[in-house]
Amino acid sequence: MPSISSLAKFAEELGVNIDYLVTGKEGTVTEIIPAIKADKISVLKLRMLLVRIVKTLYEAKTAH
């Protein structure tokens, strides 16, 4: 499981709060999606961040 500080960093980079990462409820993300889509560098950064999140979650799951 990612630490609270990791979740905070992920949330900050995604422009959401930790609640959204944990519960999946819509929030700030819907407001920033058009800006992310318009900026190709942001899209690349977002993809890289999502890969890191999935990898972290997978590693945490397989460690148990």
Q: What is the topology?
A:
Blueprint: H1 4-14, H2 18-23, H3 29-38, H4 40-62
Helix pairs in contact: 3-4
Sum up the structure in keywords.
78% helix; 64 residues; 4 helices; single chain; mainly alpha
Measured as a percent range, the helix fraction is over 70%
Q: Which percent range describes the beta-strand content?
A: under 5%
Largest sheet: none
Q: What pattern of helices and strands is seen along the backbone? A: HHHH
Number of discrete helical segments: 4
**Total E-strand runs:** 0
Average predicted confidence as pLDDT: 77
Structural class: mainly alpha
What are the segments in which pLDDT stays under 50 over at least 5 consecutive residues?
A: none
State Rg.
12 Å
**Shape designation:** globular
* Gap between N and C termini: 10 Å
Question: How would you describe what is shown here?
Answer:
The protein has 4 helices and no strands. It has 64 residues and is mainly α. The longest helix is centred in the C-terminal third of the chain and has 23 residues, at 40-62. The N and C termini lie close together (10 Å). The mean pLDDT is 77.
